[in-house]
Amino acid sequence: MTGSPCAGPAAPLAGVRVADLSRVLAGPYATMLLADMGADVVKVEHPERGDDTRSWGPPWAGDQAAYYLALNRGKRSLAVDLKDPDGLAAVRALCARADVVVQNFRPGTAERLGLGYADVAADNPGAVYCSVSGFGPGHVRPDRPGFDVVVQGESGLMSTTGEPDTGPTRIGVPLADVLTGLNAAAAVCAALVRRAATGRGGHVQVSLLNSALSGLVQVGQSALVTGVEPERTGHAHAAIVPYQTFPTADGELVVAAGNDELYRKLCAVLGRPDLAEDPRFRRNADRVAHREALVAEITAALAARGAEEWSALLTDAGVPVGKVRGVLEAIRTADASGDEPTLTVAHPVLGDLELVRPGFRFADRGPGPGPRVLPPPLLGQHSTEVLEELGLSAEQIAALLERGAVVQHPVR
Q1: Residue 138 domain boundaries
Q2: Do the record's keywords include Lipid metabolism (predicted)?
Q3: Can you tell me the distance from the alpha carbon of 204 to that of 191, in angstroms, rounded to the nearest whole number?
Q4: What would you report as the CA-atom Rg of the chain, rounded to the nearest whole angstrom?
Q5: How confident is the model at residue 28 (pLDDT cuts 50, 70, 90)?
Q6: Which residues are catalytic?
Q7: How is the chain split among helix, strand and coil, in percent rounded to 5?
Q8: C-alpha–C-alpha distance, residues 116 and 130, integer Å
Q9: For residues 359 and 33, what is the distance between their CA atoms, to the nearest angstrom?
């Protein structure tokens, strides 16, 4: 049984099978997004320890790590030892029947196992094969291991984050991994479209470093056109004023007056029309030049009311504004606003489990709660089921289970 936030006959990737040979974050995030689009994702895991993130706690929900739960909904788990010849043969068979193969082995490992692109393409020329790496095949050294925090440092992301008078700061979420997962999912979908037209699969290569570098957007381009390293601006914006957080009577507020008209509206709501007419602040370039003086004036005005009250007044006036919220507060506020940020799945051990939804929606999904979504699988929960689908006999499966080459969780 499969399921996803938009599963069913009309799901964009209904009927697509994904062999997920990845672990940790970038690869599993990509394959979870494919599952969210309706694909049948089989997650291949080590039979004893499973995905690394299964042990990345606290926090825990029961005995399940929150880290693992965040990245693996919509999948089925095949727990198999790739060092066992028959176990490896089963995974090769899975890849031979898959539409998509995603792997993030250390460079050279997939080829050694006979699971590299050339090996899979020889048996399955229509397969879309996605390799996820830390630094990419052309990097010196290509075998260099890459974790998100390392790539945040190497890519410049970290150097642009933090206050001007502090050192570089790690971004609070693993952004390099997330960007890589999004790039991988998008590229796989594009390759599937091409395959539908031509019958050809292909090799998609995605790296954390290139994903992070592409995510620098205007900051990266500014560095290229000026030849100067960007400075850290903390919660402010280097080229737009006011575009930052401000303290209020009871909390922090983000104000984003991105053009002169919005700035004038802001001044009107603050009861300070004089700030709009002050020649130091009339145009954005003027405001950037006199940033410190203007920020002091706005800060003093905002101290008169609380963040929620200012947010309502400024929103009514059309000024982009938001309260700085904690994570749980943000989720609950979005839910109360009708954004449906979470979904609930029936976990076989934990019961009802709330998960964060994907960032996209399909408007033609239809009314009602939608189809059942598979919860993040227990280790080896679907091993026997998947092996049966691959054509292994009951005797072959029993032999694999008996010698520990495959693990089947008691819950099926």
Answers
A1: 17-217+342-407
A2: no
A3: 8
A4: 25
A5: very high
A6: 177
A7: 40, 15, 45
A8: 10
A9: 9
